[in-house]
Amino acid sequence: MESEIIRRKKTRPIYVGPVKIGGDAPVVVQSMTCTDTRDVVATVEQIKRLENAGCEIVRVAVPDREAAMALVDIKKQIGIPLIADIHFNHLLAIEAIQNGADGIRINPGNTGKDKIKEIISVAKERDIAVRIGINAGSLEKDILSGYGGPTAPALVESALRSIELFKDMGFHSIKLSLKSSDVATMIEAHRTISEKTDYPLHIGVTEAGSLVNSAIKSSIGIGILLYDGIGDTIRVSITGDPVSEVGVAYGILRALNIRRVGPDIISCPTCGRCEIDLFKLSEEVEKRLAGMKEYLKIALMGCVVNGPGEAAEADIGIAGGRNMGLLFKKGEVVRKIKEEEFVDVLVDEVKNMVSNRPNNPGMEE
Amino acid sequence: MESEIIRRKKTRPIYVGPVKIGGDAPVVVQSMTCTDTRDVVATVEQIKRLENAGCEIVRVAVPDREAAMALVDIKKQIGIPLIADIHFNHLLAIEAIQNGADGIRINPGNTGKDKIKEIISVAKERDIAVRIGINAGSLEKDILSGYGGPTAPALVESALRSIELFKDMGFHSIKLSLKSSDVATMIEAHRTISEKTDYPLHIGVTEAGSLVNSAIKSSIGIGILLYDGIGDTIRVSITGDPVSEVGVAYGILRALNIRRVGPDIISCPTCGRCEIDLFKLSEEVEKRLAGMKEYLKIALMGCVVNGPGEAAEADIGIAGGRNMGLLFKKGEVVRKIKEEEFVDVLVDEVKNMVSNRPNNPGMEE
Fold it and tell me: What pLDDT, on the 0 to 100 scale, is given for residue B365?
């Protein structure tokens, strides 16, 4: 049931721990903690919540030696691969690798060439993955002045320059990201680099802002690239609880039929025709089904204009009337239900439908 | 300062009241009330709030004669063009036009051919605009069965069939929408119709759900089309307060540099490097600047990795350190500020920058 419109560009696969990125692997969802990495308890707690939300790879900041040492303990207590995020100091990268990181992210803009070479030789020895993380906010000074600013070609130039270092040392377990807080710059940079190399791409809009603002920018930037078949792993960046990053990431993948994780709730904006409290219904249903991994299309419709039509396309739906509604399942009217029963009936029916599926991976509420 | 990447497709312009849609006009933002249209006080109050938020055209549901009659009073009290949304009953469309609607939206899927002709002749007489609003949830039965479901080609077929009726009667003041709750269907339908006609397009993902879910689906659907140069007016559909539809709409236009309305807040997701309370800062700044129409790029950055770089690109920004931050303006460090002063200083500086601009259209807080 995956998208028939999108043709994904084939990339050269790599592994971050056991998780495959690129090639024929599904688009991988990742996030990053916002805790102090040295605080192992808080960091592990946050990673567990990310895992529960469906996060498949997690990244932590490693700004000093104490943080690099904490990786040993963090790694023991989590179930998903761990990536160390390194800036400025190549020794921290090397220490992170030695302490069990499944991958590291380095920023060529603030790490020297020779130092990157040192990192590569340790990464090669330990057979871990490296992300070359180009960022418009921290490009190499000569590139920045050469291009007159952090433009898409400047980002591409920075990436190509770093790729050469890795290639020269026969190291190919790399993925690339060319992030910008400017959506169009990020799109154009990834489009260009995607034509020039076949390394897997980690895509995202950086510093995208708060939940709704980031949902807008990330959905446009990541969405346009994925629709073009570009992108092997995604990270939505949100100023807020990182668990919401995972929700938005799956929302993007679901909207494009790239991965179907979690319920797809279709609900109308209501208008002068609506005679039920649809805002409350949709809010309640969303809350009660939060955390569900199973895909299901649920239509919550205020009136008869599009109600039965949308309900016909959904696995389950309600089309509202005056203080009552019709419950639909796969296009068939099942029965009339009273407005006060909407939420309970719907949630029960959804749970039944999901648990009666063959090979049901289970649901959490 | 508009986008250099996007080349907008030229369409045949129409007018909804004084508002031009298509041709060289900016992409127009519209919304729809969720009040009972017969309740004139509540409807006008909501429309006023939409106007304040930057809504440029508003639509109301007209499900019965009483609602059609209410248009007279609503129209007198609002400052933006009014569109009547009609389904099933062509007599309501005619009455809405006679009662002063600046445009009407009809749904060919639930209005008969002959009845549409009657509507066209009144619309022509009164010189108002008509939206042919195709919706996947309410397609003509023969088209639905012919295509085996509400596919993109089915939506296009329905639109083309209706266009013929209007053309035959020499009426060209039309715009088209081919909406679906399925993002890819909506994208493909608009891409196809955009190749086949030059009437302006009203784009949006229908029944997109609650605020965040709709921000995701709408940003992908509307964003991909706008990036391709398709779309003359947009409506974001949200199950919730319609004022938030306007905010998301401008967020999409701003992210693509299509229209610069309101502040663009760049803020990092924070990580183990951050030593200031960036979540609170970004939340507070967003709240205090809500309603501001002036465009300004504001960077709120947790640390020195990308902080100064992003701040250099922004009109104003803060890069955080330990309980303090550096205030930047157009790439220059202005001064150090204490964390407890961040919000007040930033909001004051923003207001000053905006009010000192030539031709300042003013700001609201």
Answer: 33
The beta-carbon neighbor of B216 closest among A43, A251, A309 is A251
What is the pLDDT at residue A2?
A: 55
Name the one residue in this structure whose structure tokens are 């990447």: B5
List pLDDT tens digits, range B300-336. 998 888 877 877 789 999 998 888 999 999 888 999 9
pLDDT per position as a tens digit, A85-123: 999 999 999 999 999 999 999 999 899 899 999 999 999
Whether B220 sits inside 8 A of A255 (CB atoms) is: yes
User: Where are the domains positioned within chain A?
Assistant: 14-255, 263-355
Please tell me the distance from the alpha carbon of residue B34 to that of residue B285, in angstroms, as a whole number.
29
Å between A154 CA and nearest CA of chain B = 14
CATH number attached to the domain at B14-255: 3.20.20.20
Taking CB atoms and an 8 Å cutoff, what residues of chain B touch A3? 184
B191: left (phi over 0), alpha (psi -120 to 50) or beta: alpha
Enter the ipTM.
0.95
Question: Measured between CA atoms, how close is A69 to chain B, in angstroms?
Answer: 14
Rounded CA-CA distance B238/B212 in Å is: 9
Report chain B residues whose CB lies below 8 A from the CB of A35. Answer: 272
Give how far B42 is from chain A: nearest CA, Å.
11
pLDDT of residue A105: 98
Domain B263-355 belongs to what architecture?
2-Layer Sandwich (3.30)
Q: Locate the DSSP E strands across B229-315.
A: 233-234, 263-267, 296-301
Predicted structure pTM score? 0.95
Residue of A nearest to B3 (CA): A184
Are B205 and B237 a contacting pair, CB within 8 Å? Answer: yes
